[in-house]
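Course assignment 3, question 2. Fill in each field.
Student: A.L.
Task: Predict the tertiary structure for the chain below.
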Amino acid sequence: MPDVFDSVYGQPKVREFLRRTIATGRVSHAYLFTGLAGSNKTQAAYAFAQAVVCERHGCGQCDDCKRIQRRKHPDVRYLAPAGASGYLVEQVRDVVADAEVAPIRAKRKVYIIDRVDLLGVHAANAFLKTLEEPKPGVILILLGRTRDSVLPTIVSRCQVVPFRQIPAYEAVGILVQNTGVTRDKAASAIEACGGSITKATEFVRSPERMAYRRRVLEVLSGLHTADDLDILTTASELVVGAKAPLDAVRAQQERELEENADLLAVSALRRIEARNKSAITMHTFDYLRQLTSIIRSWLRDVLVVCEGMPGLVINADVMAGIEAAAARTSAERVSRALRSVDEADDAMTYNVSLETCIDVLLFDIREALYETHSPDKA
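Answer field:
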């Protein structure tokens, strides 16, 4: 019988563990989900939150379930590092204080805390007491890349749930099965979404995101003829396009605040507004990461063609542009361009202007691939 954990793709052992936990009622106060990006840890955390908050263990039909599915439930809070190098102590203290406050709607409160491998000693120390003995009804779900990358003082206070890395071919197969798209389209979406099946599912179902991907690939194919003004204009366009879905997110947030304004205290509304602001920041980085992932996948395709392996191309729908770029460059140059994408990702993490990051990235890719500061009009 279908249940809330069916959405945790590619993790059969995790699904079974979470189902058994709910069925037996042996829900712990703290979990550490470990696995690489794309292993569906975040989706599993929200599914588990839905199962423990919903009075029918994740029916999918009640108001609590629908709010959690939309990532809008006031008692299910997601946290990501706000600092350039990890969590700020103030972030952790905010969670500690919030955990002492009664739930707004439900009987339980769930905190999903991402990238706890970036939780430093000082921030962790502010968190340990709450992690060890939270108030009744508070559940903490921590997400980290590997067990060894998380501080031992954190690991020792959690029930560790390991997630396996989902092979790309398997992720593509799952996406094809769930959406009915072609394998080529599924493969390109998985690449654009950093290996996440959940995000790739949303991606292929959005005509706007698919059109955006095509525009990014078109820009990359034309870099050899783009002058400096072209690149500056295009970078601005790509940043605006990457953030376009945020308009819908903001509109939904505003509607939900209006609907609940009469039911919630001022302090609760302020907490929700703060969480909404954090959610916008998170979504912004998600969409910019999609942009750099699309760029990285195109460069990888150019690289495999340079190396004489065209059968490994992922973005097969733009094969002509990939082959044309490969004919003008070399594997060594493409490798240099790929390093520029990694540097752009790092720069965005350090809160450098997003448009500046993409400006610099496009200039660096043009120079790396074609070893020129000026366009090749030939």
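Instructor remarks: The chain is about 60% helix and 5% strand. Residues 285 and 348 are 8 Å apart (CA to CA).
Grade: pending
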